[in-house]
Amino acid sequence: MTDPGLFGPGSVTWRIHGDPISFVGGLRALLLQALHPLAMAGVAQHSNYRDDPWGRLSRTAKYVSTATFGTTEEAQAAGARVRAVHRHIRGVDDQTGLPYTADDPRLLAWVHNATVDSMLDAYGRSGARLSSVDADNYVDEQVAMAGLVGLRPQDVPRTVADLRAYFDAVRPQLRITPAARGVARFGVAPPMPVWVQVATPARIAWAGVSTLAFGMLPPWARRLYGVPVLPGAGLATDFATRGLRGALLAVPESLRRSPEQKAAFSRLAESA
Predict the structure, then answer these.
(1) How many domains does the chain have?
(2) Alpha-carbon distance 237 to 32, whole Å?
(3) Are 160 and 132 in contact (CB under 8 A)?
(4) Domain limits at 127?
(5) pLDDT in tens, 249-261
(6) pLDDT tens for residues 208-234?
(7) CA–CA separation, 218 vs 87, rounded Å?
(8) What's the pTM?
(9) CB within 8 A of 250, min separation 6: which ones?
(10) Rounded to whole angstroms, how far apart are CA atoms 228 and 115?
């Protein structure tokens, strides 16, 4: 029997992570994750995202794609590599004076939950079909993803209600730090070669995507970033997200699918 991986083609995870709007959810996740001072300190002090932001984004996307669409062995190997890196990341946050370690279950849970919430929010806003049962199933399926980085099932939510309760509990710990503002600046205006900015619409396109990602953040997160919460902004974000997804779905699947996604479909087709 061909190994479908941790989730398989019938999962909500394949449906959400394989959708083109998921990349906006990924950017929303980064903006949300940056609001935890200890999580952000680890990134700021031990990451090269300032020097190689596109490489960092690419590696993160590849990890998520491998964990989602790869074989069980490939997913577990990807998780093992992440755990190995995390074991060596530790320090003291210069804003709070608190120590941190990247393999702290509380910080791992924050990153995990911010990602799950962001993917779910982006997909739901895009007009894609998603029932409340599907949403709960997605949160529950992501417990397997949490296990790859060393979290136990009891460390993370299993329903949307549990996820909402988690954010209510963790909000007092969140704040905007200089490092988080740096992430926000990258989100709005990432470095691009001059020829790309001049000869392509990449800068304008990215500005639109980052505006959507900020608009998808919960009102309390936007207030931390100093982004106004205007009446009707949520509906405008929903409308724009649906339009973007519609445009992306017009792109041929051969161009939209990641290499890991293509390999998964090919692997399963060969076994049919």
Answers:
(1) 1
(2) 17
(3) yes
(4) 12-258
(5) 999 988 889 999 9
(6) 888 899 999 999 999 999 888 888 888
(7) 31
(8) 0.93
(9) none
(10) 23
